[in-house]
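Researcher: I'd like a structural prediction for the single chain below. Treat it as a standalone chain; there are no partners to consider.
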Amino acid sequence: MRVVFCGNPEFALPTLDALLSSAHAVVAVVASPDKPQGRGRKLLPLPTKQRAQAEGVPVFEPTRLKDESFLQSIRALRPDCLVVVAFRILPRELFAMPRLGSFNVHPSLLPRGRGPAPIPWTLIRGETETGVTIIRLSETIDGGDILAQERIPVRPDDDFGRLHDRLAGMGAHLLVRVLDDFQSGNPPPPIPQNDAEATTAPKLTASDFEINWHQTAQDIHHRIRAFSPQPGAVARSGEMRLKILAAEAVSSPSELAPGAILHRNTDEFVVGTGHGALRLKMVQPEGRRPMSVAEYLRGRPQLPVCFDS
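Model: Treating it as a single chain, here is the predicted structure.
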């Protein structure tokens, strides 16, 4: 089948790679325009654009997805379907254009986790199961009919990075399987979503990264996992800002107040919470690289008595 692929970040790459290696033809990649990135704020191409250029696949970078010249260019490619992974909201003029419609790879068990940030919210909420869903795009965001779905357990040691990579790989294989079924004349029956079971995974805000030490140790641990290895959950004490990348919930060694710090030796850094305590394992001081707590403490940092809570 002739496929137009729409996607931007690293999560989209495994699906693009799987399509390029499949029997289907990727006739174009649609990516967002280059944006300044890094400390130098240099214009850098998105991962999907780089891969497409390396494979000789035409790339479109429209500022407006409703731009008529862009729509005409896509129409001229005669796509059988569009595949959308971690991209912008497509207008009806675009997603309804192909013969078979448009398919989306979404990293949650829809209708649970509708929205742009399902992976971190899965971890923040302490959910024990997640997965990938392939839907046909509709005008309801993440609300289209389900074509395929696979489930996996959330492991106790999963953080954002590990879960992101597992789900990206799963989604790639599942999407190609769905396209193969369409190609063979045996498309999966569409299953309408039950809106009554829907939950949301809204866009993250700056406050979502901040640790509230009045929460339980387990809830804070979930939040740390959700933002590791990047961008990191943030603990503050006045002007001091410390990213916490790994920790474990422990019973409080004493009646530590929320945010209070217990530093008993060269490799133990325990913080009180609303219930229980957290033993920090990996941190990242501002302007420095990630490091173990033991390495951090060897540098004799000026530790506060208590984090802001």
